[in-house]
Automatic annotation (TrEMBL):
Pfam families associated with the record: adh_short
MF terms in GO: oxidoreductase activity
Species of origin: Polypedilum vanderplanki (Sleeping chironomid midge)
Record flagged with keyword Transmembrane: yes
InterPro entries noted in UniProt: NAD(P)-bd_dom_sf (IPR036291), Sc_DH/Rdtase_CS (IPR020904), SDR_fam (IPR002347), SDR_family_member_7 (IPR053011)
Domain of life, source organism: Eukaryota
Positions in coiled-coil regions: none
Name listed for the protein in its UniProt record: Dehydrogenase/reductase SDR family member 7
Amino acid sequence: MDFLEFIGLIVFLYYTIQIVLWITLDCDIGLFIASIYGKPINSLEGKIVWITGASSGIGKELAKVLAANGIRVALTARNNRELETTKEECLALSRGKLTSNDILVLPLDLLKFDKHQDAFNRVISHFGRLHILVNNTGRSQRAEWSKIDINVDRELFELDVFSIVHLSRLAVTYFEENNIQGQIAVTSSTAGLIGAPNSCSYTGAKHALHGYFESLRTEKPHIGVNIYCPGPTFSNFLKEAFVDVQGQKYNQPVQPTDRRMTAERCAKLFAIALANNIDLSWSGIFPVNMIAYVGVYYPNIKNLLTKIGIRRALKNVRDSR
């Protein structure tokens, strides 16, 4: 075997192994490696983490994962009763590592921008500091591109983009004024990596988040920016999803037979991404992981596949079929 043949073999093996991992893993390769060889979740012990959208789904499960590792958390959502339930579950999972005072329940409607500073001040007053803000609030969408009322786009962006950006600016200012190398984390979506059919306002919002926070990462490299992009996950998000008419909801339950990742597994991977301060990561069972890789690293192939009819396949993946 001559030198060029050897190089060819190495390249062949490299891409073969990559494709096998794309098919078999439920997250990107970097996150998978971090889950084995990186910092453990409990390396965040001693830090204060504020999670929005913590009353259900990924946010709630992330709070539970962190609490189980002895990490103090502030929990925000609109529903106080559900937040209290999350707190009780967190305390039980902490197995004595945390007390009631280590978990702050902070009800807040993030669309009330004028309340953000007061909520931020409460977190600092209670814990004395903040290290990580996890922006997990958001709603999905199911609607045909051409039929969406522009007010739906505006309403969705207010929640999924502008409320997150506004709260994050408060955190960035606080980190810099107090010389804290903090982290801003964002729950994006694989729709933020590749356009999802029949979810254009949601897809646009997630792409906008990537733009905002990748710009932040470039402008202020001393602040960690963690963008996490889960694929279809078991939660109640479909019931609350926007449609094409303002004021209406999709109101469809997720089915037990859907091909989705559990919120528990999704949250654990998110926690690993936080512990290792990973810039961009994603998760999802096959074929979500492979589609994300193609969309991020091989956009020309993605464009070609879209032109030859992958749209229906993408819709089926988005709908977990």
